[in-house]
Amino acid sequence: MNENHGNLEDEGDDVARLLRVAGKRPPMPPERVERVRAAALLQWQEVLRRSPSRRYAWAAALAAAAGLVILIRILAFGTGAPTSGAAASVDSSAGSAWVRNAPDRSESERPIAVGDGVALGSEVVTAAGARVALRLASAHSLRLDGSTRIRLLDATSVALDQGALYVDSGNAAAGVGPLSVHTALGVIREIGTQYEVRVDDGALRVRLREGGVVVRRGGETHELQAGNELRLAADGTASRRPAPIHGPEWEWIAGITPMLDLEGQSARSFLDWVARERGWSLAFDDEDVARSAEAIVLRGTARRLTLDEVLDAVLPTCRMTYRVESGVLRIAPLPQSSSSSRSAAPAWWSSASSAASGLPSGETATSRRTPSTSYRAS
């Protein structure tokens, strides 16, 4: 493993290869409704408690209640930036995970918590069924599946000793070099990409969702493009095949995705983000709904919701609905029968939020990206 780390050759050739490979770059189920409702009420209670005056209490409550108004702010689970001096920070976690062998020897093992810093040289380990999302100082996003063990080697190098690691370099800082993932069976280098590396049963598997990677093992180099999978066996045998960029094998990543901060951005930006996180493309049923997505400004919080739940929570308030067809996220106007003239929020939210805020049933707040418009009742 250390030998691989110390012997990366011809970095300029790798980058040239990477550039060439990358190229140009229905109704909610009842159980989901209940989860969204519970998250909404918890968030409302939190914001209402901190609200400085009754005058603004109803607006704060609505804006905070799991994104169920057009004023929506999607917050990350953690701070989104590593603690000072740390190589990475914990963005989100589910299940049991630990940091081991910290280089300062302060402790041999400690449980992971959201917001924790992780030092260079440390191991991050997840239990079976657990998942963790880390953000490196370079802003690369790393997501660990269950039964996974990684080590932070340096600012742009990670060792995957066991399990599966998903890498998203879409928000990596300018000027940061490609991230390298080191395994016993090869080294993977990327540029502007989303990919999964899995070490299992004595083999290495790399699946690419976006961009390009170069996989090096000994004197061999394998280039991989989006929509393909490479498998390297312990005996050196290499095989590749087309692989979907969305679907069941990618679902574990969606479950640990840190929620995004969209304060002041458009609904279109939100939809672009969701589509990219799921490997979908985005389409609008007509030009009017596309223009609305550009105009609607999002504020509030949805940090307790998953990717699936946040679509169900946000889009009705934008008077939109969605469906997924063959990897395309299609956005359509909410049918007239699904919303009243005063609110596009689900019925369960209308009664709960109105009773709590003092607004008439069905009344929400909206904001459009025009200089003359401020918060107003729908």
Describe this structure in words.
By secondary structure, the chain is an alpha+beta fold. It folds into two domains: 30-75 and 259-377, no CATH class; 79-252, Jelly Rolls, CATH 2.60.120.1440. The protein contains nine helices and 20 strands. The strands form three sheets. It has a 15-stranded mixed beta sheet that branches. Strands 16-18-17 form a three-stranded mixed beta sheet. Helix 3 runs antiparallel to helix 4 (54-64) and helix 6 packs across helix 7. It is globular, with a radius of gyration of 22 Å. Mean pLDDT is 75; it is low at 1-9, 47-79 and 340-378.
Helix share of residues? 10-25%
CATH class value of the largest domain: Mainly Beta
Number of helices: 9
Strand content: 25-35%
- Tell me which CATH architecture of the largest domain applies here: Sandwich
Briefly note the CATH topology name of the largest domain. Answer: Jelly Rolls
Counting structural domains, the number is 2
H/E order of the elements?
HHHHEEEEEEEEEEEEEEEHHEHHEEHEE
Keywords:
disordered N terminus, three-stranded mixed beta sheet, 378 residues, alpha+beta, disordered C terminus, 15-stranded mixed beta sheet, Jelly Rolls, 20 strands, 2 domains, single chain
Q: What secondary-structure arrangement, pairings included, does this model have?
A:
Elements: H1 2-6, H2 11-22, H3 30-50, H4 54-64, E1 88-94, E2 97-100, E3 109-111, E4 117-118, E5 123-126, E6 131-136, E7 141-144, E8 149-154, E9 157-168, E10 180-183, E11 186-200, E12 203-217, E13 220-225, E14 228-233, E15 238-242, H5 251-254, H6 267-278, E16 281-284, H7 287-295, H8 307-314, E17 320-325, E18 328-333, H9 347-357, E19 365-366, E20 376-377
Parallel strand pairs: 9-10, 16-18
Antiparallel strand pairs: 1-4, 1-6, 2-3, 2-5, 5-8, 6-7, 7-9, 8-9, 9-11, 10-11, 11-12, 12-13, 12-14, 14-15, 17-18, 19-20
